[in-house]
Amino acid sequence: MALLVRLLPLALALALGPAATLAGPAKSPYQLVLQHSRLRGRQHGPNVCAVQKLIGTNKKYFTNCKQWYQRKICGKSTVISYECCPGYEKVPGEKGCPAALPLSNLYETLGVVGSTTTQLYTDRTDKLRPEMEGPGSFTIFAPSNEAWASLPAEVLDSLVSNVNIELLNALRYHMVNRRVLTDELKHGMALTSMYQNSGIQIHHYPNGIVTVNCARLLKADHHATNGVVHLIDKVISTVTNNIQQIIEIEDTFETLRAAVAASGLNTVLEGDGQFTLLAPTNEAFEKIPAETLNRILGDPEALRDLLNNHILKSAMCAEAIVAGMSMETLEGTTLEVGCSGDMLTINGKAIISNKDILATNGVIHFIDELLIPDSAKTLFELAAESDVSTAVDLFRQAGLGTHLSGKERLTLLAPLNSVFKDGTPNIDAYTKNLLLNHMIKDQLASKYLYHGQTLDTLGGKKLRVFVYRNSLCIENSCIAAHDKRGRYGTLFTMDRMLTPPMGTVMDILKGDNRFSMLVAAIQSAGLTEVLNREGVYTVFAPTNEAFQAMPPEELNKLLGNAKELANILKYHIGDEILVSGGIGALVRLKSLQGDKLEVSSKNNVVHVNKELVAEADIMATNGVVYAISSVLQPPANRPQERGDELADSALEIFKQASAYSRAAQTSVKLAPVYQRLLERMKH
C-alpha cells in the first residue's frame, strides 16, 4: 500500500501529460518570447526585458532568439532597448525594475499601461467609468494612444460626437465580461465582447505574436483588481461579413466574384473556418494573357486549383509577419509569406495592395498579381519558368509544340539550358525522333518511379529507370530538379540529352570501329552470347589503342590463352547497369570475374580503377558501355597487388612465429614448429 501511495502522483502526472508534470504547464508562444526578452535583459537588473525597436518608428517587439541575432524586423534594422517587463516598475536608486506595479482598478490601470486616451474616452461616457472602477471581472483590449491618433478624422468625429452610443459601443466592443490572460488566448478562438455579444477574433502565432481582430498585442497581462488590461496597436471594430460577402460587395473583385461562382468555392468562403484569402483584384486578372486566362476560366479543375492557391489554410494577419514563413494553401502548395518594411510579400514579391480586411471566417489581403499554381499550367508555361527554355525552343522548332500545350497526358524530359552551351542540334528527322523520345506517354511523378521500370515514349522507344543512392535516372539522363506537375503534363528537368539504347552491348561494340580488337577478343573468349542476351551490364570497353598500348609479348600471350583472356574481359564487365549520373564520388562495382571495379566521378569526369574514361554512357538494351584507353588488370594480376599479398603473408607468418616463439620457450614439442616458421620467413 505504501508503494502505491508513492507511485500515485507519478501515475497521475503521466495520465495528465507533459503539461501537468513538475515542469509546470506548457508556456504559450507569447510567454516564451517574453521569457527570452527577460533573459536577454537580466544583466540590467531584475524584471528588465530586451525590446527590439524598428529604427525610425515607435514599433517595438519582444525579441525571440532568431530576431535577437539578426537584429531585423521585416528586413529593417532594429535597435535594442531595455525596459521594465509588463507588470513591473523602476525604483529610484535601484537596479532594474524590482517593484511590481500597484494593483488598482481597470480605469486606473489604463493610465499605467499607456492608454490614457482610452481612459479619457471612458470618462466621456456616462456609464463606462463606474463599471471599470466597480466590482466585477473584465478584460479590456485597450488601444494605445498612437492607435487612437491614427484613426481617420471622420471616424473619430463620429465616435466623439455621440459618446453614449457610438463611443460607448466602440469601447464595449474592446471588453470581455471575464478575465482572459494570454495563456488562454488560443489561435483561432473567438471571444464574446460586451457589445451585443459580437465576436472578437484571437490569433496566437508560433512566433509569439498575438492579434485581436488583427491588432497586435503590445503589452499583455496587466492585472487589475477587477480584471486585466492588454495594450493593442489598433482600434478594433466589429466584424459582420464573411469572406464571400466581402467579395460580393467589393467592386475591385468583379472577376474574382465570377471565378468563385464558376468554381463552386463560394460554399468554402462563406462557411466556418479561419482562412486567409489572397484576393486578386480585377487588375491582377488583366495582367494574364487572354489566352491563358480564358483557358483556365473554361477549365473547372484548373480554375479551382487557381483559386485554392490563393487561400491559406489559416488566418494570417499582417502584424504577425515579422520574417519569412512558409504557409500551405488549400491547393496543397506552399507560399512564402514575408515582409519588407511595411509591405507584405508573397514569394518575395510585394504584390499586396491592401491588407487585413477582416471577415468572420478569416482575413483578406488584396493582391495585384495572380498566383497561378503549376497544376493549372501547360507544359509550355511550366517550362517558361524553368531553366529549360532552350530545349522547349527545340520542341517548338521541330513542330512538336502542340504536345506541350494540349490536353495530352505527358511527361516531358527537358534537358537544362547548360546542356546546350556548345550549341543546339540541327532540326532534322533524327533530331525530331530524338525529341519524341523525350516525351513519355503518361503524366508521371518521379516519387513513384522504381528501378527497372520501363517507360513508353512518343517516339516508340522503351526507356529504363535506374534508381541510385543519390540519383534518379532515365537511361543516361538523370533528374536535376523537382518535378513540375501541370494540368496535363509533368516536367522533369534532366541533366543531359537522353540517348535511347540502339542495340545490345555486342551490337554497340560491333558498330563502332574503335572496338574491333575488343570484339575479336570477346569472340575468342566465347563471351559473345553473354553480351548479346538480356541482362544488366556495365562494360568498360578498351579501345583498339588500349590493346595496342600493351607490350606485344604480353598482348600475344593474352590473346593466345582463351581462359586468361575470358578472365580479363569478365573483369571489364560489371554485373549491373551504372550510368555516370549514378556514380557519385566512388562506387565499387562487382565484375563478372568476381573482383570489384572502383568507379569514381568528379566534375563529370569518370575514372575506373583511376584510369580515365574516354566516353561514358553509350546505352545498350542490356547495359551501358564506357570507352576506356587502357586494359584493366584484375587485382591478382597487378604487381603491386601481388606485392601487397606477399607482404600480408609475411606479416601473418611473423605473427605466428612470435606466438610460437613465446610458446616454444616453455614447450619442447613446439620448438620444431617454431624452426619451420623461421625457415618460411627466410624465403
TrEMBL record:
GO terms for cellular component: extracellular matrix; extracellular space. GO terms for biological process: cell adhesion; extracellular matrix organization. Residues 45-99 form the EMI domain. Pfam families: Fasciclin. Plays a role in cell adhesion. May play a role in cell-collagen interactions. Binds to type I, II, and IV collagens. This is Transforming growth factor-beta-induced protein ig-h3. It comes from Odobenus rosmarus divergens (Pacific walrus). The lineage of its organism: Eukaryota, Metazoa, Chordata, Craniata, Vertebrata.
